[in-house]
Amino acid sequence: MPIRAVLFDIDGTLVDSNDLHVLAWQRAFEQVGVPVDAETIHGQIGKGKDMLVPTLLPDADAATQDRAGDLHGEIFKADYLDKVRPFAAAHDLLARVHADGKTVVLASSASASELEHYVKLMDAADLIDVSTNGDEVARTKPAPDIFAAALAKLAPLTPQEAVVVGDTPYDIEAAAKCGIAAVAVRSGKFPDAALNAAGAVAIYDDVAALLADYEGSPLNR
Questions:
Q1: Nearest Cα to 112, choosing from 76, 82, 136?
Q2: Are residues 127 and 90 in the same domain?
Q3: Per residue in 212-221, pLDDT tens?
Q4: 10 and 73 inside one domain
Q5: Alpha helix segments (H runs only) across 4-77
Q6: How far apart are CA 127 and CA 19, in angstroms?
Q7: Of the residues 55, 83, 111, the one at which a domain ends
């Protein structure tokens, strides 16, 4: 069955933001009195605060967990959001998919305001057909809610007619729960073993490499 829609994660996939999120999370955890090292935090990047915080602060009370999540958002937007840059060829890959007649979807655990910022950053407003974000769903990745919400907007398109592009195992797991195949990129700095274990159907160095192999990639099935 041919691919009719491509669902893109944003952080770590289209824009270089993962390390900045780690810094913001480190500061947030320090401020609530529960320091967490950068490597441990990075291993959870790709999840929204509803999934990341309980994993890293399992013994903290609900108020502390909520405060950590709120602090991360405040710190990231104040000190790091303006430092985020698109990966090379991010705009061009979106344009290629759009020109190919496929539906371009952004499906991210990021907030609606962050997603809007990234669309402007990539100069991609005219290329995006559908979007879903962490503010729209009860649970973020690796729960399937974000991709399920996107599929609902794409109806009657089936999961077999879509493919996800993401950088974390959580993107791939969430896609699989919806029956969608996922292509992984290494730009989020997750090891191939983790991406393969999650079920990636292909792995590329970054979106530029995926664009270079577009004709032979799962996006062109």
A1: 136
A2: yes
A3: 999 999 999 9
A4: no
A5: 18-31, 38-42, 49-56, 62-75
A6: 27
A7: 83
